[in-house]
Amino acid sequence: MTKTEIVARITGIITILVLSAAAATASPADEKGRDDVIGSGFPTVRRSVPLTRQEAELIVPRPALKPVKSMIDTDAMVIDTLDTVNEHVKVVLYSDNTWQYVKDGDFMMQAEVFNEYWDEYSMDPYKIDLDSLDNVWSLWVVDSLSQYHCPYLGAVHPRGKFGIRRGRRHQGIDIPLTTGTPVHAAFDGEVRVSRYASGYGNLVVVRHQNGLETFYGHLSSRKVKSGDWVHAGDVIGLGGSTGRSTGPHLHFETRYKGYAFDPQWLIDFETGDLRYRLFVLKKKYFSPYSNYEQDFEDEILNAEDDAREDAERAAMRYYTIKSGDTLGRIALANGTSVAALCRMNGITPQTILKIGRTIRVQ
Ligand SMILES: [Zn+2]
Asked: What's the Cα-to-Cα distance from 25 to each of 20, 29, 32, 135, rounded to whole Å?
């Protein structure tokens, strides 16, 4: 054995010793980490910083961002519920020979999200200052065990959009419907509110596992009560026109931490598709005015305004200017005055009349 060989062998032994020492010290921590994960059935590792979209897309490749079709309604009845190897997941068998995995609601409802900031009355049990909120959240909206159902398939009314209306905030969207048609829970969750509320009329609020809340207002009847666990697609009530409403429609809201954002970021109501499995919610989707209560008076005023404008439009009359016409002659022939003609058309008595142009006379 040469000197070099001896040095090499000794170095090797030292290296092995160092590695085993490292393994011995590392192992208790690893074990502990693993126990935490196994113990709860869910990973307990918490990130203090939310996933960025880029990070999320590393975990979930692009295809997962494809729209998710709404569940199809069937008349199939549940014929049996079977256990799986995971005690918190059941298999539900239906009369049309289909089946689906479902989460066990009793177990799910033990989660913190269904116990913190929980009350069966208020619209915003969080009362969190907007400034203290993060700027972006990545929310799983559906996963392999939770489906999605469009709450109501239909076009958002042009005056029922989310946003500022008459200087006030409309916190949701309005979709006209026929009274009595079923309204579905969009996702799995626990019913937090089921009551008659001024403005909203019959209102159901469902909180979902990711912390999102969905609001269903103006219902003619409610089919669920506070504390019920609902699956996506369950009928939570029937559409109607209760509360401050001018006609049957669903007032639908999506909220996070008490703040409303446009549900159309999430759902395409005309196709019924959910736009994302993983939804990147930005704080900028909230308005600074969102602490204001829903103003349903607006919906009534809008409808009244529309009726008045329609009547005015129906009453308008026009005259086509001919050779030799003067404002005085047109006014006389149409039972009005030059001043009224000038006001209605935004002109002055000195304006030169052009032959062939139309002028509003009533
Ligand atoms: Zn509305």
From this structure: 9, 8, 12, 39
Residue 139 CB coordination number (10 Å): 20
pLDDT given for residue 159 in this prediction: 83
DSSP, collapsed to helix, strand or coil, labels residue 314 as helix
Q: List all residues 6 or more positions away from 240 whose beta carbon is below 8 Å from its beta carbon.
A: 179, 180, 201, 202, 218, 219, 220, 221, 248
Enter the tokens of residue 333: 């022939």
252 C-alpha to ligand 1 centroid (Å): 7
Quote the pLDDT of residue 277: 86
Instruction: Quote the ligand 1 centre to 285 CA distance (angstroms).
Output: 18
Kindly state the tokens that stand for 225.
């009560």
Residues whose CB falls within 8 Å of the CB of residue 318, separated by 6 or more in sequence, listed in order:
358, 359, 360, 361
| C-alpha 117 – ligand 1 centre gap (Å) | 25
% of the chain at pLDDT higher than 70: 75
What is the domain-level CATH number for residue 334? 3.10.350.10
**121 falls within a domain:** yes
Mean pLDDT of the chain: 80
Domain of residue 356, residue span: 316-360
Distance, CA 175 to ligand 1 centroid (Å)?
Answer: 8
DSSP 99: E
C-alpha–C-alpha distance, residues 159 and 309, integer Å: 14
Task: Please state, in angstroms and rounded to a whole number, the distance separating the CA atoms of residues 296 and 159.
Answer: 12
> Which stretch of 190-194, 235-239, 323-327 has the lowest confidence by average pLDDT?
323-327
Q: How far apart are CA 312 and CA 318, in angstroms?
A: 13
What are the residues whose beta carbon lies below 5 Å from ligand 1 (ion)?
Answer: 174, 251
What gap in Å lies between CA 235 and CA 357, rounded to an integer? 57
CATH of the domain at 117: 2.70.70.10
- Only one residue has tokens 């008659």, namely 196
